[in-house]
Specification:
mainly alpha; about 140 residues; 6 helices; single chain
Amino acid sequence: MAFLTDDDYNAQINGDDLDVVIQSDSATREKAETMGIAQMSGYLRQRFDVTAIFNEEETRDELIIMYLIDIVLYHLYSSLPNRLGLELRRTRYEDAVRWLDDVAKGKITPGLPLVDPSSVDPLPGNWGSDTRKTYQW
């Protein structure tokens, strides 16, 4: 099941306008949603469990829904001829990316499921030293 529903879009875009933007092709919308989730995951993955965030069906975070729709609509409007209506979408997209950047930096802490610290290697690579050697003759 998709993370976003038709009702989620109603707060930001009319259903008829959404059909025009996706050119009545639901595959276009699904592709844009997948790209938006991938973009958001890149910002959130370090601190939050993105699998739990985007797989939840009942307790979805409203800010995540709003910003994901902003990102999806920006990408959809970017593909329109003459970039119709893109200025408003660009502003909302930039706001969404700014919010995601602040979340990634730790300036904002949304109520999202945190990543399990035991499942993340904090410093990837091998650390340590060679055994101590004494040179006494």
